[in-house]
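Q: Got a minute? One more chain.
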Amino acid sequence: MTASYFFGYGSLVNEKTHDYEDLHKATLQGWRRAWRHTNLRPIAFLTAEPDETCEIEGIIAHVPNDDWAALDEREFAYDRVGATSAIRHAKPAEIDIAVYHVPAEQGLSPDVRHPIWLSYLDVVVQGYLRHFGEAGVARFFETTAGWDAPILNDRAAPNYPRKQDLSADETALVDMHLRVVGAKIIT
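A: Always. Here it is, folded:
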């Protein structure tokens, strides 16, 4: 029986937001990240969308007993699709890997009513920093589309339910990259 894994490219990269094990760095080829919202959520969040010119780093993690129910509930605004052949990883065993994404016809551009929560972005960047270092954080920003979306500064009262505490250096790193991409911070 082939083991089931997911490819995480957003908050799932930060292992403090879940309890899935057997994590490995991985690369999803032919996809990029983008900020989108759907009618299912009040905020903008990351999705993966096909892009033959791009590849994104992330992690794969084991889904024990092929029990996707909890992860599907967490990722309820996404479709889960097979992506095994598009993912490079160092796991020696044969595994099946799925990725969550919002189909193009369901994804809408973020706006002031559906902003990116900075508390969510902080968690994502913290995960990339831990697994891929500062160069990986830079690649995260470079391979993500939609930085023209409004970003709600909710750090003082985080909206994101899996928020994490960031060090001063981690916060400064996020803020520096947001300046580089010309992000619009709203309060």
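A: The longest helix spans residues 118-142.
Q: Perfect, thanks.
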